[in-house]
Amino acid sequence: MDRPRRALRARASPRMDADKRRTIDVDIRRLAEGGDIGAATSVALRAYGPEIFEFVAALHRNETDASEVFSLFAEKLWKSLPSFRWDASFRTWAYAVARTSSLDFRRAEKRRAARVVPLPESSSLSAIEAEVRTVTRSYLRTERRDRFAELRARLPPEEQELLMLRVDRQLSWDDLAVVLHGEDAPPLGADERKRAAARLRKRFQHLKEKLYEMGRREGLVGDE
After folding, report:
1. Chain segment 170-218, per-residue pLDDT in tens
2. Residues 58, 9: Cα–Cα separation, whole Å
3. Which Gene3D superfamilies does the record match to this protein (predicted)?
4. Which of 13, 24, 112, 151 is the one with CA 20 to 30 A from 208?
C-alpha cells in the first residue's frame, strides 16, 4: 500500500543531475589518479559538501556537532581518497565516509578534541570546508520545517539515515547496501550486495508503515 510520500520526504536543497555528477566524478578521479589529492578533494567538497553537511546536520541536530562531524568527514575524505577503489560512484562512497565519520564521532564523544591529522594548511581545503559549512548552515536556518520533518527527527539515527539516503538522496538499493555496509569494511560481493539490498527494502517498508502510523496519531494523515 502506497503512503503519502510527503510523510517521508524532508526538504532538501536542489541536487545536481546524474550527468553532472558523472562529469564531476571523472574530474575527481583524474586528479586523484594524477596524484593531486588536494585538488581532487577540493572538487569533491564543493560538489558534494552541501548535501553531505545537510545529511550530518539532520542526523546530529546540533550545529556544533554537525560542524565537527563534517570536519571529520572532510579529513577522512582527503586521507582515504588515494585508496578509493571506484567500485561505486563517488557520491555513494562519500555518503559511506560521512556515515563512518558520524559513527566515529558518536563513539568518541568523550574524546572529541583528538583530531590526529588536520587538513593540510598549505591547501585551500580548510577554507573550502568552512565555506561549505557556512553556506549550508545559512540555508538550513532559513528552511521551513514541516511537521513531518519533526516526526522524522524522533526516529532513531539509523532509521533517519535510511530515510534520508533512500528518499531525500534517492540512492539505489545497491548503493544503500554499500553505504550502510561501511566504508572501512571489505567490499560486498554481487550476491552479498543483492541480499543486503533485499533486507534494506524490507526494513524500508516497515519504516514507512511506522512513520505513517506516527503521522496518523498526530492527525497529519487520515485513516484509510
Report:
1. 899 999 999 988 777 788 888 999 999 999 999 999 988 888 888 777 7
2. 13
3. 1.10.1740.10
4. 13
Is there a contact between 113 and 186 (Cβ–Cβ < 8 Å)? no
d(CA 103, CA 22): 28
Can you tell me the mean pLDDT for 94-111?
86
Which grid coordinates are listed for 64? 556544533
> What stretches of 82-147 adopt beta strand conformation (E)?
none
Prediction pTM value: 0.68
> How high does pLDDT run on average in the chain?
81
Q: Which of 159, 140, 142 is nearest to 214 (CA)?
A: 159
The DSSP secondary structure of 58-98, one letter per residue, reads HHH--HHHHHHHHHHHHHHHHHHGGG---SS-HHHHHHHHH
Asked if 78 contacts 119 with a C-beta cutoff of 8 angstroms, the reply is yes
The grid coordinates of residue 222 equal 487520515
Q: Are 70 and 149 in contact (CB under 8 A)?
A: no
- Residue 174: count of CB within 10 angstroms of its CB: 16
Packing angle, helices 125-142 and 37-60, rounded to 10: 30
CB 115 within 8 A of CB 75: yes
Q: How many CB atoms lie within 10 A of CB 63?
A: 13
Domains of the chain, by residue range, sit at 14-137, 139-223
Of 94-98, 121-125, 154-158, the one with minimum mean pLDDT is 121-125
